Amino acid sequence: xxxxSAFFEAYEARFNQSLKxxxxxxxxxxxxxxxxxxxxxxxxxxxxxxxxFKDTIPKGYEFYRSIGTQSMKIMALDITWxxxxxxxxxxxxxxxxxxxxxxxxxxNFDVFYFLQKQNGVLKIFAYITGDEQAVLKERGLI
Length: 142
Description:
By secondary structure, this protein is of the alpha+beta class. It has helices at residues 3-19, 25-30, 51-66, 132-138; strands spanning 32-40, 43-48, 69-81, 86-98, 104-118, 121-129. It has 4 helices and 6 strands. It is globular and about 50 Å long.
């Protein structure tokens, strides 16, 4: 298995572990570069891999648990090496939610990740998402 696939398998496992309440803050931080950028319909946001980020990680997983997120599964992974140290990965995620009425809801969505390899280690330095909040509202999860 190549390093990019292994990186995302570990990312998926860590996410699901965190949904069960066992948040791996250090592992999550280790997946990100010192500085990173998010682009979404909300705009472009730059972040630092610092104490503020460390504090927000458990809160993010708590939000996902609060809306009934049960699991996240990688359905497809499309990897494009841009050069010998930069890669773009399109991840098709499948999220399963337990709605308040007891029904299950499945949502598939894509996220584009940009990673840099330094000293053999991959780190996310940017990612692009769709309008997650709009889909969650549309499906009655928030």
